[in-house]
Design a protein that fits this description.
Elements lengths: L1 H18 L1 H22 L5 E4 L3 E5 L7 H19 L7 E6 L2 H8 L9 E4 L2 E5 L1 H4 L5 H11 L2 H14 L5 H16 L4 H4 L10 H7 L6 H32 L4 H9 L3 H33 L1
Parallel strand pairs: 2-3, 3-5
Antiparallel strand pairs: 1-2, 4-5
Helix pairs in contact: 1-2, 3-7, 3-8, 7-8, 8-11, 11-12
């Protein structure tokens, strides 16, 4: 084992020297993602497959009647997601439909506290069977609710960004982009994040960049990332956002890619967004105080 690890490490160092760090990092990441995909798909004992033009769905026989619905929704959001990211996938995107939370958690090594209904991980998109998380009286209602609440657009955004850039992005950016594109494609916004108040102190750019997954107020972190990406898109348009992503695909570090594509530093963009966010928050507090004062006067 140690000889194998030493050989891999030596090969990685040699690659770094010959190809340069950005290209070497991308090559190592591509291998890592490919191995994860092979391992995940190789563990799907008993799963069947169904295909559409751009997706292949893995599912158990008990969910066979949902296969057409899942593929239909994936195809319905595909064009919008590709347009916003600026990249079509190289091959059919693998979707895995897990029959219950136990199977989904086991596939990705999650604990019982995880309750997500979709996940992107190392080249595959995992989905929880909508029967588990949608209370519907009949198949038509289930289909209608799934089209409205489906996580496919969100996870497909993660998939495309990761495949295109080889992981060259901060966590807040991929989560913000996925939420932004999901809202454009389906109108859905995660309710807990949407309800998170923007009262100071908000998370700093450094906190979002360095500690995103460890921040205690997860809905707030997600809301900030969503609004920050939306702010970039509103200020610079789709060409600005896809131009930034294209530079990330070339291996340009995130901060330098932002300055090149948008003509401003990420710190200054965040500062502008923060001023607007805190202004809206203060205005909201004033409205609530005025409403409360009016109620007290009426009493």
């Amino acid at each position: 084992m140690w000889r194998l690890l030493s050989a891999v490490a030596a090969g990685a160092l040699l690659l770094c020297g010959l190809a340069g760090w950005p290209r070497a990092r991308a090559a190592v990441y591509r291998y890592y993602r490919h191995q994860g995909r092979v391992r995940t798909l190789g563990g799907l004992a008993g799963y069947r497959t169904a295909e559409s033009g751009r997706f292949v769905l893995y599912y158990l026989p008990e969910d066979g009647d949902l296969a057409a619905l899942i593929l239909e929704q994936a195809e319905a959001v595909y064009e919008r997601v590709v347009a916003e990211v600026g990249y079509p996938p190289a091959e059919r995107v693998p979707l895995i439909l897990y029959p219950d939370r136990t199977a989904l958690r086991a596939a990705y090594g999650w604990g019982s506290e995880q309750s997500a209904v979709g996940v992107y991980w190392r080249g595959t998109v995992g989905l929880l069977s909508p029967r588990v998380w949608i209370a519907a009286g009949d198949p038509a209602e289930l289909a209608s609710e799934f089209r409205r609440l489906s996580p496919v657009a969100h996870e497909l955004t993660h998939y495309l960004l990761d495949e295109l850039t080889e992981g060259n992005y901060p966590r807040w950016f991929t989560e913000g982009l996925a939420q932004y594109v999901e809202e454009l494609a389906t109108g859905y916004v995660w309710p807990e994040a949407a309800a998170a108040p923007l009262d100071p102190p908000l998370y700093t750019l450094s906190e979002l960049t360095r500690r995103f997954d460890d921040l205690p107020d997860r809905p707030l972190a997600y809301r900030q990332s969503h609004l920050l990406v939306a702010h970039i898109a509103e200020a610079h348009g789709r060409p600005g956002l896809t131009g930034l992503i294209a530079l990330l695909a070339e291996g340009v570090p995130f901060d330098r890619a932002v300055e090149t594509a948008l003509g401003r530093s990420m710190a200054s963009i965040y500062a502008d967004w923060l001023d607007q966010a805190e202004g809206r928050s203060a205005q909201g507090r004033n409205v609530r105080l005025s409403e409360r004062k009016g109620l007290l006067e009426e009493r």
